[in-house]
Every structure is written in structure tokens, then in C-alpha cells.
Amino acid sequence: xxxxxxxxxxxxxxxxxxxxxxxxxxxxxxxxxxxxxxxxxxxxxxxxxxxxxxxxxxxxxxxxxxxxxxxxxxxxxxxxxxxxxxxxxxxxxxxxxxxxxxxxxxxxxxxxxxxxxxxxxxxxxxxxxxxxxxxxxxxxxxxxxxxxxxxxxxx
Length: 155
Fold this sequence. Notes:
Strand order of the largest sheet: 1-2
Structural class: mainly alpha
Distance between the termini: 14 Å
Low-confidence stretches: 113-118, 132-155
Largest sheet: 2 strands, antiparallel
């Protein structure tokens, strides 16, 4: 919540408090890792993403951001399996295209052939489109019946 309000320090404090209550809580580990990754501390994000994956092996976004963190620290070899894991969990979509392109570029780089890598600017552009879509979805509300019943869905 605080991260969405451009207060990463407050978000970090809340995620750390949540982890004091339950140090295995995957969403808190993931979100704290994301705050670390966004501020350029990929080395601190890695164990948090690994913890989120250990707590919830189907947490696709944790695999994606773990791969990003390994890329940021310059360890493409360790990133590659996490790109593949993300693709296996999320076989379609824009983020999958980024994961596939990055994984393919790294595989070609390892073999000496050249495929242009996905740049941080490409990822930032997709991230901005994804956040804009999320804001649109948040603005949508499906109304309940007109008899005073609660709405069925609040996004």
C-alpha cells in the first residue's frame, strides 16, 4: 500500500513488521524483496524472493523478480532457471515475453551467438503499462443488485 503511494520506506517498515509476526509469509517476503530490487539492492532482494518461493512454490512473480535480481547483480547463469520457472508458471502474457526473450538472449550469449538482450528500459516500460492496467482495474467496481445487497466484487 505505501509503495503504491510512493513511500517505499514506510512500505519496507510494514513488510519487516509483517515478517516479524510470520517470517515465512510469502507476500511480505516478496513485497520487501520488490522494494529492495526497486531501490537497487538486488543482493538484499535475492534471499527474500527465495524465501517467498520456498513458502509458495507457485508464486510466479517471485520467480520473475528473482531472475531480475540475479541479472542486476550480474549473475545471468543463476537467473536462467528462474526465467524458465516463471514461464512454466505463467505461459502467456507480456511478462512471459520478457522472461522468454531474456532467457533466450542469455542462452545465446552463453553459446557465443548474439541475440539482443531485454534492457532495463524495456522492463520499465512493461512495468509502467502493467501498473496503469492495475490502476484501471482498481477503479472498476461491479455493483450488486439494486435491493441493497452488498456488491459481488470490489476491485
